UniProtKB/TrEMBL annotation:
This is DUF5518 domain-containing protein. It comes from the Archaea. Pfam families: DUF5518 (PF17647). It comes from Methanobrevibacter olleyae. The chain crosses the membrane at residues 7-39, 102-120. InterPro entries: DUF5518.
Length: 124
């Protein structure tokens, strides 16, 4: 079961990494996945699940913010491709890129989340 507090924190950290540290995205995702897995304290599977959810949510919101930003800033410059038609066109064409990013974020953050969860697993 997912701990929403750790997923939400991971989601916010994923947005920070994606939006501000794009050059070091892979290393940032490793660190964020580890933090989420460690905070969740649910073992290997729980840490992996929480980190993968945080990565997926971060990817989806980042993609939506990027499409909206391009749509708003490109309105005056792009003519027909601005506004609602530009939003629709950019949303459809970037669908495969977003799916690729979701899978990448889930795998990278899931692996390091499992490591973080394994370090906090308490023995009964």
């Amino acid at each position: 079961m997912a701990k929403m507090s750790s997923v939400f924190l991971g989601f916010l950290l994923t947005l920070v990494v994606y939006l501000f540290f794009g050059r070091y995205e892979f290393y940032g995702l490793l660190i964020v996945g580890f933090i989420v897995g460690y905070i969740s304290q649910e073992g290997i599977v729980g840490g992996m699940w929480n980190a993968a959810l945080a990565g997926a949510f971060g990817t989806i919101v980042s993609a939506i913010l990027f499409i909206i930003l391009i749509t708003i800033s490109g309105t005056a410059l792009m003519g027909v491709l601005g506004g609602l038609s530009g939003f629709t066109i950019s949303g459809i064409t970037s669908l495969f890129a977003v799916i690729y990013e979701i899978i990448k974020y889930m795998i990278v953050m899931g692996i390091t989340g499992a490591v973080g969860g394994a370090l906090t697993k308490q023995k009964n």
